[in-house]
Amino acid sequence: VEAPPKSPDGSEKSPQSKELLTSNTASTLCISSRSESVWTSASRSKWDIYHKPVIVMSVGAAVFLLGMVITSLSFIESKNVKFYKMCGPAFLSLGLMLLVCGLVWVPIIRKKQKQRQKSQFLQSLKSFFFNR
């Protein structure tokens, strides 16, 4: 059985205080690494910024068009009508949902980019005045 470690003033530290100390240090490291990654990724191309919403919109448009084709086949074909009437609207709604999600994602990214630019400007002003 091991005795708990003693602090410099001679009192014993509990395991809970050790956990608090390590979790506090870990959260500080996490915050500092997160803020460093925000500042170092300043020069990104438009494709790097918008590639996810563009892919979501492209897939959504393709699925929506597939849904339109399947739905129109239900009116043209006389066999498998039940299958077309079930799958067509499902693909239509899924494609429309993905398309709208991609369209909404673009303004959100633009707003985040503006906020990031403002915070970089304020950070540079702070460092200019406080480092003198």
UniProtKB/TrEMBL annotation:
UniProt-annotated stretches for the region Disordered: 1-22
GO MF annotation: an example: transmembrane transporter binding
One GO CC term on file: plasma membrane
Lineage: superkingdom: Eukaryota
Keyword Membrane attributed: yes
Lipid bilayer topology: Multi-pass membrane protein
Keyword Membrane assigned: yes
Compartments, as annotated in UniProt: Membrane
Regions crossing the membrane: 54-76, 88-109
Keywords: Membrane, Transmembrane, Transmembrane helix
Protein name as it appears in the record: PIRT protein
Protein source organism: Nyctibius bracteatus (Rufous potoo)
